[in-house]
Amino acid sequence: MGFINSYNPFGLMFTLFPIMFIIVFGVIIFSIVKNISVNMHNNKQPVIPVEAKVVTKRYNVSTHHHNSADNNMHHSSSTFYYVTFELNNGERLEFPVPSYEFGMLVEGDSGTLSFQGTRFVSFIRM
């Protein structure tokens, strides 16, 4: 009796698909649980006002490519805004901020930064 090659590409696909599905689903569930946990932690923290100065501003643009039903390529993007503040003691804190706040803040501005945990609340310029 000789060696019989029993390689079946569909068998491999049917094995890998459930594993990949479980991994992707697990990552999505983990992200949701982590975001809820961070949000709950921030909600329990006091709002802390401190004197601070705007040190730097940056943004991150994520571009997404989508194929539509009519086989045309569509592009979309998301922009996330971040501001780094320096406290009087030299400590620096970076927060994601809404776009309207980002546009109003200028590097070098001094004022009162209010934050709650890892969440930016407001910045009132002096």
Topology, pairings included?
Layout: H1 9-44, E1 47-67, E2 73-87, E3 92-97, H2 99-104, E4 110-116, E5 119-125
Antiparallel strand pairs: 1-2, 1-4, 2-3, 4-5
Transmembrane segments: 12-33
Keywords: Membrane, Transmembrane, Transmembrane helix
InterPro entries: DUF2500
Query: What's the number of helices?
Result: 2
Low-confidence parts? none
End-to-end CA span: 89 Å
Helical content stands at 25-40%
**Apparent shape:** elongated
Strand line-up in the sheet with most strands: 3-2-1-4-5
* Number of beta strands: 5
Characterize the biggest β-sheet: 5 strands, antiparallel
Sheet-strand content, in percent, reads 35-45%
| Secondary structural class | alpha+beta
Radius of gyration: 24 Å
Order of helices and strands: HEEEHEE
User: On the 0-100 scale, what is the average pLDDT?
Assistant: 89
Transmembrane segments: 12-33
Keywords: Membrane, Transmembrane, Transmembrane helix
InterPro entries: DUF2500 (IPR019635)
Pfam family, one: DUF2500
Write structural notes for this entry.
With 126 residues, this protein is of the alpha+beta class. The chain has a domain at 9-44. It contains two helices and five strands; from the N terminus they run αβββαββ. Strand 2 and strand 3 (92-97) form a beta hairpin. The mean pLDDT is 89.
Entry summary:
The chain is 33% helix and 44% strand. The model has no long low-confidence stretch (mean pLDDT 89). The chain is of the alpha+beta class and 126 residues long.
